[in-house]
Design brief:
single chain, two-stranded parallel ribbon, mainly alpha
């Protein structure tokens, strides 16, 4: 059984200002639209995890605020188990929503950000640069009042991706 999950907007989760948040939101909406289409096409059990109070609960997230921590992963597991049960596919009890250990302390989170988090940013600089250029384009469009062009461009890209998905599968049947 294929399980899929759509993801939340990182700009909103991180509380970024609009100029930083808008391109991230546009990109995440596009990804989620394609994930929804693929989930439907392949009969996946799909968890719509991009909304809800759990997104703003810091206890659910790791120090980077982009990835679920243990409690967040358990929340996803509980919700996926419920969907599997609803579909008649789950056997056995659901997972516990409670973590096995204590949540990392604030000091541990700060230490992670200062060490591993900084290293992650340094490694990601090669793909972060194009994203920074996207932010510059976003600011230029906003100043000109043409931001809707970016939304339209993203909509066209999603439509093209969805059209490519509608091509029949040509693999031979075994």
């Amino acid at each position: 059984m294929l399980l899929t999950v759509c993801l939340s907007d990182p700009g909103t989760m991180l509380g970024l200002p609009g100029a930083f948040a808008r391109p991230l939101a546009r990109r995440q909406r596009a990804v989620n639209t394609v994930v929804h289409a693929l989930s439907e096409r392949h009969g996946a059990v799909h968890l719509h995890a991009s909304e809800g109070a759990w997104l703003t609960d810091r206890a659910m997230w790791s120090a980077d605020r982009l990835h679920p921590g243990e409690r967040g992963h358990r929340q996803l597991a509980v919700r996926l188990h419920a969907l599997l049960t609803e579909a008649g596919l789950a056997t056995g009890p659901g997972p516990s929503p409670e973590p096995d250990g204590a949540a990392p302390t604030r000091g541990a989170a700060v230490w992670w950000l200062a060490t591993a988090g900084t290293g992650w940013v340094a490694r990601r600089c090669t793909d972060l640069l194009p994203q920074l250029l996207t932010l510059a384009a976003e600011a230029r469009h906003r100043a000109r009042g043409t931001s809707s062009r970016l939304d339209l461009s993203a909509s066209h890209a999603v439509a093209s991706a969805l059209a490519a998905l509608s091509v029949p599968d040509r693999r031979p049947v075994a």
